[in-house]
Amino acid sequence: MVEQVREFAERHVPSSDREGGLARPIEEITSKLPSDTWLWLGYGSIAASITLKLMGRGRDANFVGMWAPVFLIHGVYNKIVKTQGHDKYDQRD
Is 56 left (phi over 0), alpha (psi -120 to 50) or beta? Predict the structure, then answer.
């Protein structure tokens, strides 16, 4: 099933061999960080949000709590790029 989806995507979804202008500088910085960094940032923002809520700062807690998905999704993006080798075209010797 996975192979069929992959074949369908290769035929019907246009692909690019290179990262865009925005992704490249972000990846240069974030690729140097360990993958655990994104988990720590995500769960840290959840802990900070709970702490702020317990302190009675509900609006601040909501604001900080919204960071968790951003950190976790960025970690997933980084992991995909590292494992799938999409950045292989931009590696400098």
Answer: left
